[in-house]
Every structure is written in C-alpha cells, then in structure tokens.
Amino acid sequence: MAVLLNSWTQFIDTLSLFDALDIAIVGFVLYRMILLIRGTRAVQLLKGIIVILLATGLSRTLNLDALNWLLDKILTIGLFAIPVVFQPELRRGLEQLGRGRFFARSTNLFNAEDMPKVITELTKATQVLSKNKIGALIILERDTGLGEFADTGTAIGGLVSSELMINIFIPNTPLHDGAVIIRGNRVAAASCYLPLSDSAAIGKELGTRHRAGIGVSEQSDAIALIVSEETGAISIAEGGTLTRNLDEQSFRELLLNLIGPAKQSGFSLFNRKAGS
Q: Burial code of 202-241, b = ≥16 C-beta within 10 A, e = fewer?
C-alpha cells in the first residue's frame, strides 16, 4: 500500500499543467463519444471489440500463439471495418463537430418577420390533423442542409400555410406518404424519405413516422413535427429527443423556443442566406 501511495505521489509531482490539460481533453472526448453512441447498436459492437481486446491480451499472456495470431488478424481486419460499422455514429459526430461554435453560422433560416406566421400556420395545421387523426411528418431545416432528402420527394416551393399542410397529408392523395421538408418560410418538398432511427430507447408503440422524425433529428439539427395517425398525439423531435403529447400552447411555445432568434458567433465560415 505504501508503495502505491509513493508511486502515486511521484506521478502527481511530475504532472505538469499541460499534462493535466491533455488528460482533461482526452477524458472529455471519450465522454462525448460515449454520449454519441449511447442508446444505439454501436454500444453492443463496442462491447464485442472490448471482449476481443481482452482475449488478445490474455492469449498473449498465456502464450496461446495460435489463438493470439487469429485474434491479431481479426483486430487488423476490424480496423478497416470500423468506419463501415460505425458509419452512422461517425457521420453524426462529424456533423456535430461542424455545427460547433468555431464553424458556426446562424442556426435559423427563418426571418424575424416570417417566424410568427410560420409557427402560427404550423400550429393550425397540426391541430386540425390531430383532431382528425391524420398522420403527418413535417421537417424544419435549420443549419444542416437536407437537400439529399428533399431530392427523394416532389419539389413544391410554395409558402407555408395550414391549408397546404393539411391538403398534403390528406390520406390517399399523391403526396401524403412521406415527410414534408420546410426551408425558411417555404415548403421545399413533400413525400420525402428519411432515415429511420435505430435507437433502442424508442418505445415499441411508436411507428415508422416517429422513427423517421427522430432519425433525421439525430443525423442533423432539423426539427421534426409529428402527428400520430393512431392517437392524434403531437410530438416534436430535436437532437434525437422526442417530446410527446403536446397541446396547442405547449407546441407553440416549444417551437418558438427551437426556431427563435439565431445566436451569431464571432466567426462564421460557411454562411449562406436564409432560405437558400
């Protein structure tokens, strides 16, 4: 015990300020990585990798040459497979890095004069759709462009209005199946296909519409407005988090908070005009 304490004291004495900073940064990066993969299939894959690493160390310690050779080859192949296996998590992490303050731009495509009208029209539309139990999925584009998803649907280009939203989602009409993507105060496209979330934390009672809304909010900073076809419940997904069973007032307040006035950073690298 005394030897351990002595070793620990010597380690503290030799630890410089930059060493402490280095350790703190590495710890923070690992913490953010854990948050990034939490609730996804990557957790189970990571456990598998840890088991292989432990087995490799154990086989080397026990001089199990054949097993150690096999595990080394598996780890070598795994280095090339990791970018493929963890592609969704890597993409999400890089997008979050790109949305950091150093590369920041306005996180709001809504002009100050357009925002109240857009929120009012979306509130009216979701209330009507909810009362009639008509399923809907409306995506509000923010900083991350959703052009690749808009291209899977039908271009619209019309101003946002409750009448347009309601008519798009009427059952058995050509555009009702899929998501509507809103860019600024205009409907960019309808009947769009979105990525589905694979999070194990999503309740089994939630269907494809909710998984698609959560999925696009995980892979971008978009806001997803979801109306359940089964219950008429209204939900909002943002940052992979789903807020359910919103009434008219709470829906309006949450939406206003999410697409409120943008905060500008001191440096902006990738500026674009609102609505572009």
A: beeebeebbbbbbbbbbbbbbbbbbbbbeebebbbbbebe
User: Whole-prediction pTM value?
Assistant: 0.64
Using CA atoms, how far residue 35 sits from 17, 30, 79, in Å, is: 27, 9, 22
Mean confidence (pLDDT) of the chain: 80
Name the residue type at position 154.
T
pLDDT band at 106 (very low <50, low <70, confident <90, very high): very low
Neighbours of 29 (CB within 10 A): 10
Segments making up each domain of the chain, as ranges: 2-103, 115-258
CATH architecture of the domain covering 115-258:
3-Layer(aba) Sandwich (3.40)
User: Would you say residue 95 has pLDDT above 70?
Assistant: no
* E strand or H helix that includes residue 227: strand 223-227
Asked if 236 and 227 touch (Cβ cutoff 8 Å), the reply is no
Please name the residues in contact with 180: beta carbons below 8 A apart, sequence gap of 6 or more.
136, 137, 138, 139, 156, 165, 168, 169, 187, 189, 190, 192
| Residue closest to 142 by CA, chosen among 272, 26, 46, 45 | 272
Helix (H, G, I), strand (E, B) or coil at 182: strand
Task: Average the pLDDT over 49-57 and give the result.
Answer: 86
Q: How far apart are CA 115 and CA 118, in angstroms?
A: 5
What element of type H or E holds 214?
Answer: helix 208-219
